[in-house]
Amino acid sequence: MDMEQLIFEIIASAGESRDLTYQALDNINDGKIDEAYKLIEEAEKTMNTAHNVQTKLIQSEIQGEKIDGGLLMIHAQDHMMTAIAEHQMVKRMLPIFEKLLK
Fold first, then answer.
1. Is 0.90 surpassed by the pTM of this model?
2. Residue 79 catalytic?
3. Which of 22, 29, 45, 53 fits a 20 to 30 Å CA distance from 35?
C-alpha cells in the first residue's frame, strides 16, 4: 500500500469514528443511552484502525524508511487527534447523562 493510501485510511477511519461519536451524542439527546454506548464502542474500534495505521507508519520510520506525507499527513494527524479528543470527551460524559436521565 502506498503512502497516500495509508494517509487516507487514517483520515477515513478517524472521520468515521468522529461521525459515530456524534451519532452517540444524538442518541443521548434522544434518551437512547444503550444505543449511545454501542455507537461509542463502534467508534473506538474504528479509531483503532486509524491508530494502527499510524503505528505502522511510525514503526516504518523508526526502521529507517523515509515517511513523507507532507501537508496531507499533517491533515491526517490533525483529523485523528481531534476525533480522539471528541471521542474521549463523549465517552466520559455518557455515564453523567445516563444518571441525569434516570
1. no
2. no
3. 53
